[in-house]
Design goal:
It is a single chain. The protein is α+β, with helices and mostly antiparallel strands and 489 residues long. The protein has a single domain, classed as Cytochrome P450 (Cytochrome p450, Orthogonal Bundle), CATH 1.10.630.10. The strands form four sheets. The protein has a five-stranded mixed beta sheet with strand order 1-2-8-5-3. The protein has a three-stranded antiparallel beta sheet with strand order 4-12-9. Helix 11 packs across helix 21, helix 16 packs parallel to helix 21 and helix 17 packs antiparallel against helix 19. The relative contact order is 0.15. This is Cytochrome P450.
């Protein structure tokens, strides 16, 4: 009798759990109607409110293997490339098919950019930047970072910063360095020079770099965006406010300089924004817009390129045949250089074909922006599947780059896979596509190229804990990677 009672209790508990588990499904079945609900992509909306948020978090943070999340969807629902789920409070469609990814990236009529609240914090507090027409904002961000003529102005400075940095690292040979952080500081110097016209003082540079690390950590850990003491999101807001105050001070100093000295020369992008006026002679960009623009650019400009550069150094150091082939190419370029030439030129950088393949393979193998987010503006039908208005769409760049049907042995680091290979549209999307294509992509590749050039010719790496944990959020990076950089005799 007792056994029967236990079985009944277990059955009731399981039944209640199953019912609760299906509440999301029932809610959207009623909300959308049976016919529309059946047209949704295959998948599972999971538990009420939380959906599959904890499973996604566990995959990225605990297991450090986001591809396993996609593989589970493939095994359960087939490889159609679209799956419904429920993540971080929002009904979501995950997209892994390259053609569908491309279509969504380019379809601005039906999809708008959308990020979780913890990521949108980078837009700043004023709203001026996020509310501006994104095409205007993109032009403002991209103009100092793209194009042959523009980038050629920065080669000497970038080379100087990187050469000095490598020399300093090697002089600290007895002490290992945290590679991602050190590269981040170098690239931070570059981006501040481009946008501010001069480097920040050392104290401010270190303070901002530390605050941006807090911001990165906060975006990773802030699963629930509540602004209350004790929540990670609260700390995230505090770090952002400190960054805003620092940058606001820099912008105001620039404004005072132009107001006090009418002959001041425009030297950088912030100067251009400060003095810009419309057809009526009024100030074109608000101080808050300029501040929020710099806040976001500084984050992206030193964080993601630094992570990619770190992976590049690790891969070439762990693959001697790749290192040797790259070194032969660099030595060949140096041998052709006129004796009076002292440093790199953009023409020489264009000759680095194998180095370009290495960088492409790094961007594929260690996709820095694993996912991009969109939101449907209206009801959309794609490949026979219905996506309702207001749903989140996650474009999984990493799933495309690690698809064995596109890239054989995708886990292998193999720059030679790019020999005579041109990906089809949507198959290589490290910087996104369309009007939201990363405005700093060319600058990032230039920085990484110059770093690899000097490292390959003059240095080697000795690992201390190169097998350290690989944190996958907000970008996959070798967490706490310590190494020694040694100058070759």
């Amino acid at each position: 009798m007792e056994m029967i009672s236990v079985c009944v209790i277990i059955g009731v508990v399981l039944g209640v759990c199953l019912l609760v588990r299906r509440l999301n499904e029932l809610w959207y079945l009623v909300k959308l109607g049976g016919r529309a609900y059946k047209s949704l992509p295959p998948g599972d909306l999971g538990w009420p409110v939380i959906g599959y948020s904890f499973s996604s978090y566990k995959t990225f943070i605990v297991q450090e293997d986001p591809i396993s999340f996609i593989q589970s969807l493939h095994s359960r629902y087939g490889k159609g490339g679209m799956y419904k789920t429920h993540l971080y409070g929002n009904p979501t469609v995950i997209v892994t098919n390259p053609e569908i990814c491309r279509r969504i990236y380019l379809d601005e009529a039906n999809f708008k950019q959308h990020y979780p609240k913890s990521v949108k914090i980078l837009e700043g507090s004023s709203g001026d930047f996020s509310n501006m027409d994104h095409k205007i904002a993109y032009k403002v961000m991209a103009s100092p970072m793209n194009g042959y003529e523009v980038l050629s102005n920065y080669v000497d400075f970038i080379e100087e910063v990187i050469a000095k940095g490598l020399e300093e690292w090697s002089s600290m040979m007895r002490e290992p360095i945290k590679l991602v952080d050190e590269i981040g500081i170098l690239f931070f110097k570059v981006i501040t020079k481009i946008f501010l016209g001069s480097q920040l003082d050392a104290k401010t540079m270190v303070e901002l770099h530390t605050l941006y690390k807090e911001l990165s950590f906060g975006m990773v850990m802030s699963t629930f965006p509540y602004d209350f003491p004790g929540f990670t999101f609260h700390q995230l807001l505090k770090a952002r406010r400190k960054i805003e105050n620092t940058i606001q001070g820099v912008v105001e100093e620039k404004i005072r300089r132009f107001e006090n000295d009418k002959t001041s020369e425009v030297q950088c992008q912030v100067d251009k924004l400060v003095v810009a006026i419309n057809e009526n002679g009024a100030k074109l960009y608000s101080n808050n817009f300029i501040r929020d623009l710099i806040l976001g650019i500084f984050f992206a400009g030193h964080s993601t390129p630094a992570i990619a550069a770190c992976w590049a150094l690790l891969h070439i150091s762990q693959n001697p045949h790749v290192f040797q082939k790259a070194k032969e190419e660099q030595e060949s370029i140096i041998r052709q250089r006129p004796s009076v030439q002292k440093g790199l030129t953009l023409n020489e950088i264009k000759q680095m074909k194998y180095l370009t393949k290495i960088i492409n393979e790094v961007l594929r193998r260690n996709t820095i922006t694993a996912t991009n987010f969109r939101e449907t503006k209206t009801d959309v039908n794609i490949n026979g599947h219905f996506i309702p208005k207001g749903w989140t769409v996650q474009i999984w760049n990493i799933a495309v780059h690690m698809d064995p049907q596109i890239y054989s042995n995708p886990q292998e680091f193999n720059p030679s896979r790019w020999d005579n290979y041109t990906p089809k549209p949507g198959e290589f999307i490290p910087f996104g596509l369309g009007s939201r294509f990363c405005p700093g992509s060319e600058l990032a590749k230039l920085e990484i190229t110059i770093l690899l050039h000097h490292f390959i010719l003059n240095y080697k790496m000795e690992g201390v804990n190169l097998e350290s944990n690989n944190n996958q959020m907000p970008s996959p990076r070798p967490e706490n990677c310590l190494c020694k950089i040694i100058r070759l005799s």
